[in-house]
């Protein structure tokens, strides 16, 4: 059974349809990119996975549960990393990581050790007591990743998490993220505007087309040669544009 499953999902806001007849499944342990033009419904899809609101029609299931109706059940199971690190400026790196565990309901006596461990794994040993303004953008995003991984979620959602960083920093962090997801046996779903990121990050690309409809579902081979990569790129772009795609 897929760990994330959308069946005939519709989501309307007042008179605006953000997601339309969206059906897909993501298996446990998959690392999937979600691409599509701005406003095509990517964040709405994420918010449905997070249970922030219910679908207007259809069903959303995460690990067999309804994320909206059983919101509390999900607190520890799904973590999100956003484009900006969203750290509390008056808290240290260590405290910011601990806050995630507090909201996830992890026993307090575990916070410090787990936070130190994850900060170290993300290359921030020795910077535990730094405040966000004392860290670079890349380091702040590392804290944000440590906060997400420290609750040991089953699913990690990334919403443009690497796009505010320079390409070199983003590449390094992306690689580390992929390793951590795979080592931990987690399921990862990553919204990205970068085709290069989508083509190198995971094993599958979901292409959304407005209004929130699945235009294509593309398997990415592990080590595509340049010609295959170019063909994949063209296919993703075709899926994103209204007149093209493999629907
Ligand atoms: N709470 C809301 N109320 C009304 N309309 C909304 C709401 N949230 C999203 N929308 C609309 O739904 C559509 C899809 O928005 P969404 O944020 O999911 O797109 P997106 O693909 O994530 O866009 P971007 O790539 O620019 O972040 C847009 O037209 C947006 O204006």
TrEMBL record:
Residues 4-235 form the ABC transporter domain. It holds the Pfam family ABC_tran. It comes from the Bacteria. SMART domains: AAA. Keywords: ATP-binding, Nucleotide-binding, Transport. The lineage of its organism: Bacteria, Bacillati, Actinomycetota, Actinomycetes, Streptosporangiales. InterPro entries: AAA+_ATPase, ABC_transporter-like_ATP-bd, ABC_transporter-like_CS, ABC_transporter_ATP-bind, P-loop_NTPase. The keyword Transmembrane does not apply. GO terms for molecular function: ATP binding. This is ABC transporter ATP-binding protein.
């Amino acid at each position: 059974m897929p760990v994330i499953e959308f069946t005939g999902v519709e989501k309307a806001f007042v008179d605006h349809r953000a997601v339309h007849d969206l059906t897909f499944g993501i298996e446990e342990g998959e690392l999937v990119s979600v691409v599509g033009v701005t406003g095509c419904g990517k964040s709405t899809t994420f918010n449905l996975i997070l249970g922030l609101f219910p679908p207007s029609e259809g069903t959303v299931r995460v690990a067999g549960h309804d994320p909206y109706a059983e919101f509390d059940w999900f607190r520890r199971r799904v973590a999100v990393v956003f484009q900006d690190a969203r750290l509390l400026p008056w808290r240290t790196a260590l405290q910011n990581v601990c806050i995630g565990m507090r909201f996830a309901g992890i026993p307090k006596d575990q916070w410090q050790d787990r936070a130190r461990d994850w900060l170290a794994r993300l290359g921030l040993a020795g910077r535990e007591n730094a405040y966000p303004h004392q860290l670079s953008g890349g380091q702040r995003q590392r804290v944000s990743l440590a906060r997400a991984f420290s609750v040991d979620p089953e699913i990690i959602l990334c919403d443009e998490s690497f796009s505010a960083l320079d390409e070199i920093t983003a590449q390094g962090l992306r690689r580390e993220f992929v390793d951590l997801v795979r080592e931990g046996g987690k399921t990862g779903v990553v919204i990205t505007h970068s085709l290069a990121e989508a083509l190198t990050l995971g094993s599958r690309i979901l292409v959304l087309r407005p209004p929130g409809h699945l235009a294509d579902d593309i398997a990415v081979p592990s080590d595509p040669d340049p010609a295959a990569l170019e063909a994949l790129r063209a296919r993703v772009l075709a899926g994103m544009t209204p007149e093209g795609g493999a629907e």
